[in-house]
Write a structure and sequence with these properties.
Distance between the termini: 58 Å
Number of strands: 14
Shape: globular
Order of helices and strands: EHEHHEEHEHEHEEEEEHHHEEEH
Bound molecules: 1,4,5,6-tetrahydronicotinamide adenine dinucleotide
CATH architecture of the largest domain: Alpha-Beta Complex
Number of helices: 10
Strand order of the largest sheet: 3-2-1-4-5-6
Strand content: 15-25%
CATH class of the largest domain: Alpha Beta
Radius of gyration: 19 Å
Length: 320
């Protein structure tokens, strides 16, 4: 046999092999999208998860490589880096404490990852999402098209789910977009939500839509309340895998993505969720929708709260 040709298969690094990270690793490998490197600070854990995922390959019928590691050198040459590393908020921990802890983790992860994968596109998942994406953008010095946050795809999927449940229709037939920050101040755009092109305003009364919007805003908290220990991870991993797929397969999907704004929607120097076209170069363009006064006001209120937390994070990181 002649010597094998060296093949370069796309590689996705996932920093943080917790519930979102490990579920994402499974999705990426089983969708046959890329080889996966799972990195965590806990020794042995990502290695064990990688072995478990490898052992499922014969059953799931794919041949993607999955490596678990504690060493950034093993992530070298990744096309995509997803950052899910962070700590959950523990009892007695203030929001500021959480901001400090996760800011340090995300900044360190972003710097280490970019050092080994200078051409990667970064997707941040760690909360508070919009602020962490801003910090990772700052830490890497990447152009804004190559670093983004995942939240809107998840929040939109939740809105779509609640609309589908209410109407008794196939969830895949429902299309909706949620903009703004990831939290209480997110901006679900009911005016643009449809069931196979039919606006939901034709199908549901205002009070019902308001109820579904409220449930969407509370989507993460509803799951935390039920589970008691930790939060959602299946849908967050699915939402992130859609972004990974759109980049690797150059699908140019129009998705709500947390991105650094430079004047779009009248907003500057802030990261917030807006519709973006996502392809192999990262964010290809930002779509500026014609928002109503109340939608625009809600987006600005959302951005102001992110801006406040960005400023707080700068103070925290400056002190250390
Ligand atoms: O829509 C969204 N953006 C979100 C965000 C949806 C769901 C979850 N969201 C946030 O993602 C959540 O609030 C957390 O901030 C992250 C990860 O959530 P997950 O549920 O996966 O948390 P885990 O299971 O606690 O996993 C975090 C892992 C854990 O294994 C830690 O050991 C690891 O992060 N960790 C680190 N890895 C590498 N390097 C460092 N420094 C580090 N510190 C912790």
């Amino acid at each position: 046999m002649s010597s094998p040709i060296a093949c370069h298969l796309p590689r996705v690094t996932i920093v943080g092999a917790g519930r979102v990270g490990s579920t994402l690793a499974q999705r990426v490998a089983e969708k046959n999208l890329a080889d996966v490197v799972l990195l965590d600070i806990v020794e042995g854990m990502p290695q064990g998860l990688a072995l478990d995922l490898l052992e499922a390959r014969a059953i799931e019928l794919h041949n993607r490589q999955i490596v678990g590691t504690n060493n950034y050198a093993d992530t070298a040459g990744s096309e995509i880096v997803v950052i899910t590393a962070g700590l959950p908020r523990k009892p007695g921990m203030s929001r500021d404490d959480l901001l400090r802890t996760n800011a340090q983790i995300v900044v360190e992860a972003a710097k280490n990852a970019i050092a080994h994968s200078p051409n990667a596109i970064f997707i941040v998942v760690t909360n508070p999402l919009d602020v962490m994406t801003y910090l990772a953008w700052q830490a890497t010095g990447l152009p804004r098209n190559r670093i983004m946050g995942m939240a809107g795809v998840l929040d939109s999927a939740r809105f779509e789910t609640f609309i589908a449940l209410e109407l008794g229709v196939l969830p895949a037939d429902v299309k909706a977009m949620v903009l703004g920050s990831h939290g209480d101040l997110m901006v679900p755009l009911s005016r643009y939500a449809t069931v196979n092109g039919v606006p939901i305003t034709e199908l549901l009364d205002e009070a019902t839509i308001d109820r579904l919007v409220e449930r969407t805003r509370n989507g993460g908290a509803e799951i935390v309340e039920l589970m008691q220990t930790g939060g959602a991870f299946f849908a967050p991993a699915s939402a992130t895998s859609v972004m990974v797929e759109s980049i690797l397969l150059n699908q140019s999907r129009l998705l709500p993505i947390a991105t650094y704004l430079q004047g779009e929607y009248g907003l500057e120097d802030v990261v917030i969720g807006v519709p973006c076209r996502l392809g192999c170069g990262g964010i290809e363009s930002i779509l500026e929708l014609n928002l109503s006064d109340s939608e625009s006001k809600a987006l600005h209120t959302s951005a102001q709260s992110v801006r406040k937390n960005i400023e707080r994070s700068q103070e925290i990181l400056a002190v250390k």
